[in-house]
Design goal:
The structure is a single chain. By secondary structure, the chain is mostly beta strands. The protein is 9% helix and 50% strand. It has helices at 208-218, 241-252, and strands at 8-16, 22-29, 33-35, 39-41, 44-51, 61-68, 73-78, 82-84, 92-100, 105-109, 113-115, 120-129, 134-142, 156-165, 168-177, 195-202, 221-226, 231-238. The strands form three sheets. Strands 3, 4, 5, 7, 10, 13, 16, 17 and 18 form a nine-stranded mixed β-sheet that branches. A seven-stranded mixed β-sheet has the order 2-1-6-9-12-14-15, with no helix packed on it. The protein has a two-stranded parallel ribbon with strand order 8-11. Helix 1 (208-218) runs antiparallel to helix 2. The chain is globular. The protein starts with 7 loop residues before the first strand and ends with a helix.
Length: 253
């Protein structure tokens, strides 16, 4: 059961238009989600995802589908931080599917997620790449409403990420935060940090020296792994969102 008369769905399909720019070929969305018309920065189509609700509630479920056409360059951002409200005895969930064609670039850059006390969120994202697809994907998770000292007061937060290239699995990440069974402020996990960035870069030729220099200058708690298929997985911890957003934007540029 959801708070809306129909299940929340959103789909976006892009292609190269007659003017040589990436345009929206087809789109569909139901409340509370909607997409703004793209604005352009050089040859990149910037598209903003907007939600007209206060956040996800008990029983809410979203299905999102993105199909990025050949040679397209798309950056998708969100309007505001995403709030996961108290889900009572239930949970909120979202399934996302992303397809990126050859020579296409998709920069998926939503603003951070804030799980409120007693919230339960379950997310799953599946990404399909072609041989020459480019991906910059990030997720920033907070410990809760930290300004209210509501830290790790949620029931559960889970987010699964699966990436395939030419239908072969190349990356899998399972983020499971369960304060009831896991001591999240353990020195081996969050320690005294409250904000977490998970950033995946595949295909884009970002020099290792630039990454190394950017990471060192950030003075954040960061780990980086080079992927065998070409690309990097970067994970960072901070005590605020701004540092992680700044790091993510600097790396993506």
């Amino acid at each position: 059961m959801t708070n809306y008369a129909q299940e929340t769905k959103l789909s976006l399909k892009t292609k190269i238009g007659l003017n040589g720019k990436c345009i929206i070929e087809d789109t569909f969305f139901t409340p509370p989600l909607k997409l703004m018309s793209p604005f352009y920065e050089d040859d990149t189509a910037n598209i903003m995802l907007i939600s007209v609700s206060a956040g996800l509630m008990e029983g809410d479920h979203q299905e999102m589908d993105f199909d990025i056409g050949q040679d397209c360059k798309v950056k998708l951002t969100s309007q505001s931080f995403e709030k996961i409200h108290n889900t009572q005895k239930g949970f909120a969930s979202r399934n996302t599917q992303i397809k990126i064609a050859n020579n296409a670039t998709f920069d998926f850059s939503p603003l951070p997620i804030i799980p409120f006390a007693n919230s339960d969120f379950r997310g799953s994202t599946t990404i399909y790449l072609k041989t020459n697809s480019n991906l910059i994907y990030s997720e920033i998770i907070t410990a809760g409403r930290t300004s209210r000292d509501e830290i790790f007061a949620f029931k559960n937060f889970s987010s699964k990420l699966k990436i395939y290239k030419e239908n072969k699995p190349i990356f899998f990440d399972n983020t499971l935060l369960d304060p009831k069974t896991i001591e999240l402020n353990n020195v081996c996990l969050f320690d005294n940090y409250t904000h977490y960035l998970n950033l995946i870069i595949i295909g884009n030729q970002i020099p290792q020296e630039y990454l190394k220099e950017t990471i060192i200058k950030s003075n954040l708690n960061i780990g980086i792994s080079e992927l065998q298929t070409g690309g990097f997985c970067i994970k960072a911890l901070s005590k605020n969102s701004e540092d992680l957003l700044f790091l993510r934007e600097k790396i993506a540029k």
